[in-house]
Amino acid sequence: MKNQSNNSKILSNLLYFKLLPVLAMSGLLDLKPITAAREINAAVVNVSGRQRMLSQRTALFALRLVCTQDVVEQEKLRQELLAAINLMEKSHNGLINGDAEMKLPGNPSPTVEAMYFDLPLNLDKQVRNYITQARLLGEIDKSELTQDNFHLQYILNASATDLIKALDAVVSQYQQESDRQQLAIDLHLAELYQQSCEATEKAQAQSQKLEQALTDLRSYQTQLVQTEKMSSLGQLVAGVAHEINNPVNFIYGNLSHASEYVQNLLELLQLYQESNSKPSHKIQEKIEDIELDFLIEDMPKLLSSMKIGAERICQIVLSLKNFSRIDQSQMQVVNIHEGIDSTLLILQHRLKVRNGLSEIQVVKEYGDLPLVECYAGEINQVFMNLISNAIDAIEEVTDRPGQITICTELLPSDEIVVRIADNADGINRKIKARLFDPFFTTKPVGKGTGLGLSISYQIVAEKHHGKITCNSQPGQGTEFLIQLPVQQTRKSTAQLSTAFAAS
Ligand SMILES: Nc1ncnc2c1ncn2[C@@H]1O[C@H](COP(=O)(O)OP(=O)(O)OP(=O)(O)O)[C@@H](O)[C@H]1O
Ligand SMILES: [Mg+2]
């Protein structure tokens, strides 16, 4: 029982001191009425206990009053007796009728009221009789102050038996009622606390959902913008490639015929010259005019260089087609070096000398790579983003020639690595931490959107189960490393088996 009441006190303290302020702050609870109820309870229990104490004090003063012979002492004890009895009367009235100063509401419960006004206790009557007897004793003549005085006997008897028992019963009744009220308050608080927890949980879940939706939306928007950008570029490149393709094939296809025809004509000319050793003056003039010997010597060279040029255009067209790969929504097995080369071709205009910027040298250290299974167009986007960033960084440097080094390598883990490094100023730690955040850019408005690396991360890490990392020291350039599994399907089977082994 004692433990239970201790626990209830601990719970009540916890609720009162720890939870009440929280609940009040959350707007769920009006603290004022609860605090007032607690104060009233405490005051009622306190005053009823005081009644008990005052009755005992009065008895003590009364006894001492009849025992002392000292007149001064007697007078002092009379005053104290009357003061105690006045206080007792005040408290008694306060408990029954109320007293704002003592925080007594004056509305005793039916049980307490019965104890005061009904039999068997009839405490009101007992208290008033006691007060009357004590006052009479306090005011009687000195000669009547004997130990067998009626008033004294009444006081001693009541304070030791009936009155004290009745006061004890009322104190305990007040205490019980206060405990019950407190328990009700505690339960109410616990309920409110639970409600507040549930409300907080709900709010948290909702805010998490909202946050997630916002993140998804941003990421979707990012992808959309970048996909749109790349697909426009891809379409443009594919369109140009397609348009050039036909006329170039036309030229290239006819060049061999043209060579053959020219060769035939030259042979015929030679035959004419042999059969007619003395050409007319007019012909001779023309031969000198057109520098026939030089023409005969130069013509095959000219045709062969035209052929080389046409072949180069064909290669470029092929590269452009390779870069765009817009029609490929399926994974393909491709040559990664071709992807890098075609990207470099697209960016050629930024690598060459141009208005005030010197040429950027590209060093390729290609390893022996197998064909790699990937979304080729998207992997080319990654190369495009990384090489563009390297060029942007190099353009900021003025005191040394720019260089981009691209290395590739096959790892024993059946993954390929592509390293794209520049010799620009590098990236400081603060910026490095945010590199892959969508919309993070240090470039001026209109130049950078801050999407290049975040999209590259999505393509490499999420779509291809690869890794993209950055090594950079301020002042020492930057290297981006892309790691891709050679085969996506095998990789996922391997992942599955690892997961299986781990479980
Ligand atoms: N090679 C690099 N050297 C120095 N800083 C770099 C390099 N690559 C990226 N950064 C830094 O990372 C930032 C983010 O790059 P990201 O490619 O995501 O966006 P961006 O190039 O600014 O804009 P966008 O690519 O969308 O046009 C850049 O603004 C730049 O500060
Ligand atoms: Mg960029």
From TrEMBL:
GO terms for cellular component: membrane. Pfam families: HATPase_c, PilJ. Its main location: membrane. It is found in: Membrane. One of its GO terms (molecular function) is phosphorelay sensor kinase activity. Residues 203-230 form a coiled coil. This is histidine kinase.
